[in-house]
Amino acid sequence: MAATTAQPPSPLPPAGEVIEVENSEPGSPDVGSRSSGSGRSSSEYSGWVYHLGVNSIGHEYCHLRFLVIRGKCVAMYKRDPHDNPGLEPIRKGFVSHTLVVEEVGRKKVNHGDVYVLRLYSRLDQTKKGEIACATPGEAQKWTEAFEQAKQQAEYDLTRGANWNRLQSENEFNLDGHRRRVRRGLGKLVRIGKGPEMLLRQSSDLQSHERVNTNFGGDTGDALEAHEWRFVRTLNGIRIFEDIANSKGGKGILLKSIGVVGANPDTVFEMVLSRDKHKRHEWDMLISDLELVETIDGYCDVVYGTYEPKYLNWWKSKKDFVFSRQWFRGQDGAYNILQSPASHKQKPPRHGYERTHINPTTWEIKRLNTSESTPKCIVTRMVEISPCFWDRWRRRTSSNFERSIPFALLSQVAGLREYFAANPAITPDLPSTVVKSKVSESLIIQSELEYSEPNDEFYDALVRGESFEGDSDDDDNDDDDDDAGKVKLKNVSWAIAGLAMKRTKASLERSELVTNSIPIAIDSSHFHGTVRQAKSEDDPNSWSSPGGEKFMIRGKTYLTDYAKIAGGDPLLKLIAVDWFKVNERFDSVALHPKSLVQSEAAKKIPFILVVNLQVPAKPNYNLVMYYAAEKPVNKDSLLGRFIDGTDAFRDARFKLIPSIVEGYWMVKRAVGTRACLLGKAVTCNYLRQDNFLEIDVDIGSSSVARSIIGLVLGYVTSIVVDLAILVEAKEEKELPEYILGTVRLNRVNPEAAVPI
Fold first, then answer.
1. Using omega within 30 degrees of 0 as the cis cutoff, is the peptide bond preceding 618 cis?
2. Residue 705 has pLDDT above 70, yes or no
């Protein structure tokens, strides 16, 4: 394979270029090898990673390695094989269809922080190992690379290729014995021993199959109840107040928004950094930080001190303890939640007054720009006391400028100026990228879901604002009248023009068998453990809202990213179960007491069972049952999803969450972005008789476990809407439609029924 690559790694690598090459899938993972193989084109992913493990005497190691994934073949080298022709890999093997890639999160290694991926086989736990990356963005790209290799293996199985014993024995294993290569002492090279090498060498893995970096704005796929009003400018940063009468909040919500000249990964690292020399350059409040405890890869507790030299509102030295939780979305955006905390290792300190840092969040999203310099939008949200804010607004005094909330909101301005003065902090690091002609069915195309052109800073679709018809869409071929059109106003993902949504009748014509007699479905014949709501305020209940508050792909999405308001769900929600179990509960539909096994359910043409497995003590199962009045058309998108492969289902099953009422930090953690569940967590599928069950193992993802742990702490005060759908990726499948919805009103964990 002929390829031009960037220079070899160095502790502080120079800016490099992205190279695209086309190649055919080889029969072995060695770079440059040739084989007849399958003859199909495939992607190559390559870059620098850190191989973590424990040696034979029990010592942990972290080695810098060059990893190459081509098709379903993987090879690991000590040096870049593109710069060293003939170099033999130290490990190589195949990715199997049983591979599981888990994002472990942030981990401290050699006095530095890396982001760890754990790889293992579902069938053989001895084949396991860990690699780490410099940023969570790279970790997600490697996850997608391994996922595509896994899809290649699954595709080969569907084509009749056997996963024979030879391939099983040669399955890629990071933890097993590797072949040693004898060299003279003069040729031994120590790699990855110092923190400068560990922290600054970046793989910068990229795939340009479907790349559109038009991220930006406070975007979502469900309408939120915030109503932001601009109140003033501080240091060139806009300050907004949430004036909506949202329930579940504990104070007034403010946010500052600014454009920072760096990529989201770099800004995220700077926000989490405890390096006081760097923080002193942009943070006037919490610049001195000490790690108290690491809870997991996505949560820690820190301690800080502050001497009131600049905020003379304070009279004595201050210290504080707060927890930090962080998440990276599938769109590459970061959310960081900070809450006041207490810790037994940090009792009150003599000479310091213990204070509480206001509950705050960071949101860091890539900004669409035609410039070569990366930029992102940074949003800082702060909750403050209503009485304090009202006094400041009435008297317009200067007290606010000497308060903790002011210092927190000013951090955005500090970051902006810091990166403006240090442009070399975010270089384009070297990488090798190979462009592929692999089948569309194997490409992970979720990037399109999050690549919507926009330069807005915030959502402005607020409660009480209606969608309006518009007659300017002359290019739409649909003959429906203006009542069926949707106008997207002042929304970060909005585009000029309109898109048509399917009516319920046209949807049934395409997805269900039209010449069959519909079955009358009476929900009173089905009784779940959660009762159907009698009113909006009925606690521990469910209802089925319409889909108009969820934004889904329109007819022209593949060309202009236009989204439309969802219509009525195709399937009818007939019951909801809320179970508690000691261990994970799969195959709920096969349980003898399941409503799917009832005589009434057996008369229904098709039932979709969605089993959300919630990790806790005890574990919970939230099970939703959706029914179709007619048989499903086998050739429709839904029909192909029902009877398709697990890989196809994983790439298409999508959920949109929306916290309607609840504490604002929970809303920010959950978000309103559509999520491909098969990509985020492990989904298992059971297709039998007249039903398909989807078991969603939320505990299979460290990120999902962290978020659900936060949600469970407020679940009795939360109203949440969920929409499920099958993602449309081809023009003939558009526009999308909503399969089903559910509203869960203040569910009580104590009301869960033991199984």
1. yes
2. yes
